[in-house]
Amino acid sequence: INKNNKDDIIFNLKRYNLYNCISKNIDELLNVKYSSISENEKKYFSIEIQKKSEFGNQMASFYSEKSNISILYNNNKIIDFQINSNRIDTNIPIGNIYAKDITYVETPFIFYVMDNYLDGFNIFERRYIRNMIKAKNHIHDLFEKITLLNNIDETYLNIDNTITSIKSFSNYIRKNIGGYIEYNNEKRKFLFTKGNNEIELSNTAVGIKSFAIIDLLLKAGIFNDKHILILDEPEVHLHPKWQIEYAKLMVKMAEELDIQILINSHSPYFIEAVQKYSEKSEKIADKTNFYLSEKQDDGYALIKNVNDDIESIYKTLADAYRKLDKDTLWNEAKK
User: What is the CA radius of gyration of the chain?
Assistant: First the structure.
């Protein structure tokens, strides 16, 4: 419906006695469609949609009615707004945002969901069904990007030899997991091929799925210097040896593809691997930052840069060993 065909549509609706029951909706639709919306309103609407999807009605801190989110780039605040009773204050302007796209990888178990919705449907049916999945936006986003595998933009990939880097990364992943991942159009499934054997990706070890997500995202050609990749505890399902290889891969991707990577980790193996491989890179050694989150007495968490005291991270992670030693000695003393 638009200004030009509005009268014709209303005429036809009246013919079938449908206009009266939806006239209010039509007026609201036209109001929204042709009202003037500022860039700031668009940005806040996007943030509100994302907030609702990811946090529901529980975004604010438990310890205060008001919360604040600030994002700085080159010491300039590009986002700085208040959250009061889980509502965003829309009066504060939002600056230009550096990133053009963000990919958040929370879990490799997405392949269990994907198999159920890819099997037996064409691409248009899959998109419709994907929208019916009750999942958070970042799950939908990852789903969509992984299924871009067959729509790689070769023109983009050949810019600055990006295709060469992606092939080298893919070969690196293949070497580590002992096989390769691809989407089989005939079977409509992602398969892990090892030697002469084909295994449905959902049936492989979770560590293989973790590497598979990165491999498929690389092949989909989504990464560039305006991209941020967020990884939530990627080491959880990885053997210590694979943790080191995964960390090495992340450092090389940041170095060669110019993407920014934000990683949350509790593994000393993984963190030390990121530290050491980053230190060897002339390009990103001074761009790699380490932060430590510490719970305060008032219930808040303080996240601070510890580039000059990385040892504090390892000390925190060693608390579990100290507790184990203490409990073991205590039990021995009781005997």
Answer: 25
Q: How far apart are CA 138 and CA 231, in angstroms?
A: 12
Residue range 126-184, pLDDT digits in tens: 555 555 556 788 887 888 888 765 444 444 444 455 566 788 999 999 999 999 988 77
Name the residue with tokens 């980790």.
Answer: 265
Tokens 């936006």 belong to 137
Residue 89's SS3 state is: coil
User: Could you tell me whether strands 227-232 and 260-264 are parallel, antiparallel, or unpaired per DSSP bridges?
Assistant: parallel
**Which residue, among 307, 245, 260, 316, has the nearest Cα to 279 in the 3D structure?**
307
**Band of pLDDT at residue 334, cut at 50, 70 and 90:** low
Task: Please state whether beta strands 291-295 and 260-264 pair in parallel, antiparallel, or not at all (unpaired).
Answer: unpaired
- pLDDT of res. 159: 43
**Of 112, 110, 107, the residue nearest 235 (C-alpha):** 107
Q: How far is CA 185 from the centre of its chain?
A: 26
